[in-house]
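Sample 3 of the quickstart, ligand calcium ion:
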Amino acid sequence: MQVLLIEDDAQLAEAVVIALKRDNFSVNHVSNGKHALLAVETSSPDIIVLDLGLPDIDGIDLLKKFRRLKFFNPTLILTARDSLQDKIKGLDSGADDYLAKPFEMDELLARLRALERRLSSASCAIISIGDISLDTNSHELKIDEVTHDLCRREYMLLKALMESGNKIQTREVLENKLYSWGEEISSNAVEVHVHNLRKKLPQHFIQTVRGVGYVVKNS
Ligand code: CA
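Result:
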């Protein structure tokens, strides 16, 4: 799951980036509206966290521009403007959720997980396909009620595959979900994680679609 954080307060942004990465989101950060528009156009984030008080473009205006760019993924507004009027204006402009500063990091993470669930076919915290289930709160993989440990990227990769149901995920899309901008990534990173995941999963659960990507199949 790729989050775009649009926040000009460097200290707060850094704290949010660290917390999100720890919670297995891949996160890209921009500090002004111009870069935010570019990021939405070029990297199609899954979720946006938007500060309203930006140096160049007002957050509400930016939100309207995203909608004009046909970006309709969940957007959470993060702002010091906590009056009821601002809240209403934000939600009326198409925001999906609203969190007033100062906020608890745990609350932001819980709200992002809720938005994330809205994006996926999973309506609750547990994504299940056949006997295989992935708990998006505890990050545990269960196969036939037996719990298996996953490393961070394995978890992110399996979640991306399982929540997309029977839609094939390309390697490029998966790389975007697993790695933030500027993170070092080897050319076969996704293949390596798939290889390691396959050792823990039933044979044929993750299928390779040659030249395209990967898909999970319950067979
Ligand atoms: Ca600000």
